[in-house]
Design brief:
elongated; 80% helix; mainly alpha; 0% strand
Length: 70
Amino acid sequence: GSIMVWVVSKSSWKASRLGKLTTFLQIVTILGYMINFEFKIYALYLTILFSVAAGIEYLAKGIRILSNRS
């Protein structure tokens, strides 16, 4: 997907704030499981929620870029 966008648009793909927040939450969740954090399951659910939202955002961005080039 992102390779197709790069080939078509010849521009760099910048991470969104939501994507960066998702990466942070993923790191926190992994660390939470490593140290057996009491509320780790909530961190996992929150991370899943934000990961899906970021994926949808990137998918929409890719579709916009590809549809504007057609």
